[in-house]
Amino acid sequence: MEPTWPAHRLAAAIAGKQLASRELLRAFLDRIERFNPALNAVVTLDAERAMQAASAADEAVAQGRALGPLHGLP
After folding, report:
1. Number of H helices and number of E strands within the chain?
2. Distance (Å, whole) CA 17 – CA 39
3. Domain locations in the chain?
4. Which of 59, 23, 40 is nearest to 10 (CA)?
5. What is the pLDDT of residues 24-35, one digit of tens each?
6. Do 71 and 61 touch, CB atoms closer than 8 A?
7. Residue 10 CB: number of other CB atoms within 10 A?
8. Per-residue confidence at 23, pLDDT binned at 50, 70, 90?
9. What's the CA gap between 59 and 39, in Å, rounded?
10. Model-level pTM?
11. DSSP at 68
12. Which of 3, 16, 46, 69 could form a disulfide with 27 if both were Cys (CB 3.0 to 4.6 A apart)?
């Protein structure tokens, strides 16, 4: 998985249970940590709430409940 994949590919990997939302979020948070000091593109970050949402998305996928075409994306 690459966080640079297009959204539809990431969403398909989540729906297909090849990728967890928490795993994807962690990859994005790592990129933010790496690049944001120089870019200052992310002004407000709530990683804890994002992880809660990712966990809920993973739970929904595990139960067979998808919430739409971008389900589970950060």
Report:
1. 3, 0
2. 33
3. 7-62
4. 23
5. 999 999 999 999
6. yes
7. 23
8. very high
9. 33
10. 0.90
11. S
12. 3
